[in-house]
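lol ok so funny story. i was supposed to be doing the assay writeup but got distracted and ended up predicting the structure for this chain instead. priorities right. anyway since i did it might as well share w the group, maybe its usefull for someone
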Amino acid sequence: MKSLDPRIARAKIELDNPDFSLENQGHFPTYEVFHQKKRGAQHQHVGIVHAPNPEMAMLYAKEQYTRRGKTANLWVVASSEIFATEYFDEDMFENTPDKKHRDPTSYKVMDKIKAFKENQQNQ
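and the output, tada:
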């Protein structure tokens, strides 16, 4: 069987391969794509691709997300491999709303310094 998709034709992927079957999958799994613009920069999530395997996901990601602009590196990660919190676990992100210890205006040091200086001058 020959694919009409030029990306598959260029990659020389044999569709007669027993490991490659749409009938068994129903649809392609999704892969998250992360793009790095230059070496040393952070990878940023740019989107998803649907592909039968990681190699094809990389090929699709390259075709889709590196056409414009420079690219130093690409990552593809199966969406099923991402472990995330659930929305009902939002209480784990709660913190103390009163954080006056972080705000320097909450300290009344200047009042004490002024009182000390006045006390020193009066003696």
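The mean pLDDT is 80. The two ends are 101 Å apart (CA to CA).
back to the writeup now i swear
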